[in-house]
């Protein structure tokens, strides 16, 4: 549907639908409250033929019957409500309608209108439906703008007997997953301290103390223990009166007094 513009209090007319071929029939008086029947109109003898145009001005739609060539107005039917008395469908066909025309003096009459094509009759019906649907929406928006507090409010409260379900199992899994993460090494002064290797205990050595002598030499990485290695002379146990750094002096002195033996190693 074409939009309708409003400049001041003036309303412009919008065209909703145009059908090039339509027939007009005289409608006999209705004797009872039953619906109209197109079979009673002498369909082979239309009273007038031309084009049909539906326009809208404000909330009112106008069905206009015009000459195909000159566009001269033959009759028009103002429609203020649809469905309603201004436009009625017949009971025996979907291509024919009864409309109430009105002249400038306010005189009214009922005439029959028929479309050659069934699709034109469908478009005629839809154009009127869309227009009055738009009218209802505009009226509702205007009412809500005048009374904003009377609009529907969102109710977020619990109804009687209503419950909610929390999946606590997934929450525990997420908490357990975060708790099992390994702590990152603590850095001091830009240096990263690695954790001790698993399965071993480190024994700190304080100044002035010596580790106890081993009965057998420790195996170096990648060096197998053989009989020749076990036959090496072991260092004597130091006396209790020696200070913490006496071993180095004795070792240096004893090594200078002992004769050098050729063991196959080249000394630098």
Short description:
The chain has 268 residues and is of the alpha+beta class. It has helices spanning 118-146, 168-179, 227-230, 246-257, and strands spanning 6-7, 10-11, 14-26, 48-57, 60-66, 73-79, 87-89, 96-102, 108-115, 187-188, 191-192.
Task: Give the SSE map.
Layout: E1 6-7, E2 10-11, E3 14-26, E4 48-57, E5 60-66, E6 73-79, E7 87-89, E8 96-102, E9 108-115, H1 118-146, H2 168-179, E10 187-188, E11 191-192, H3 227-230, H4 246-257
Antiparallel strand pairs: 1-2, 3-4, 3-9, 4-5, 5-6, 7-8, 8-9, 10-11
Order of helices and strands: EEEEEEEEEHHEEHH
- Structural class label: alpha+beta
The side-by-side strand order for the widest beta sheet comes to: 6-5-4-3-9-8-7
Q: Gyration radius, to the nearest Å?
A: 54 Å
The best one-word shape is: elongated
Nearest-integer average pLDDT: 74
Residue stretches low in confidence (pLDDT < 50, at least 5 long) are 1-9, 251-257
Quote the beta fraction. 15-25%
Helix content: 10-25%
The count of helical stretches stands at 4
N- and C-termini, Cα separation: 106 Å
Total beta strand runs: 11
Largest sheet: 7 strands, antiparallel
């Amino acid at each position: 549907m074409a939009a309708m513009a409003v400049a001041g209090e003036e309303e412009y007319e919008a065209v909703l639908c145009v059908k090039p071929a339509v027939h007009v029939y005289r409608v006999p008086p209705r004797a009872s409250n039953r619906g109209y029947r197109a079979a009673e109109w002498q369909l082979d003898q239309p009273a007038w033929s031309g084009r049909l145009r539906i326009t809208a001005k404000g909330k009112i739609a106008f069905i206009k019957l015009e000459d195909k060539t000159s566009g001269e107005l033959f009759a028009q039917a103002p429609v203020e409500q649809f469905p309603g008395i201004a436009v009625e469908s017949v009971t025996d066909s979907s291509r024919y309608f009864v409309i109430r025309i009105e002249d400038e003096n306010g005189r009214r009459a009922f005439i029959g209108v028929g479309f050659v094509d069934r699709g034109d009759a469908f478009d005629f019906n839809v154009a009127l439906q869309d227009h009055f649907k738009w009218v209802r929406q505009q009226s509702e928006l205007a009412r809500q703008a005048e009374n904003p507090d009377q609009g529907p409010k969102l109710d977020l409260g619990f109804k009687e007997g209503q419950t909610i379900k929390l999946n606590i199992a997934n929450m525990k899994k997420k908490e357990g997953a975060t708790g099992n993460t390994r702590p990152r090494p603590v850095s001091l002064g830009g240096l990263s301290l690695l954790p001790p290797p698993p399965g071993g205990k480190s024994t700190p050595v304080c100044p002035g103390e010596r580790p106890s002598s081993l009965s057998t030499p420790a195996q170096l990485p990648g060096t197998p223990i053989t009989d020749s290695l076990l036959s090496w002379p072991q260092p004597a146990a130091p006396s209790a009166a020696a200070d913490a750094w006496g071993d180095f002096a004795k070792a240096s002195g004893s090594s200078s007094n002992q004769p050098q033996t050729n063991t196959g190693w080249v000394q630098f």
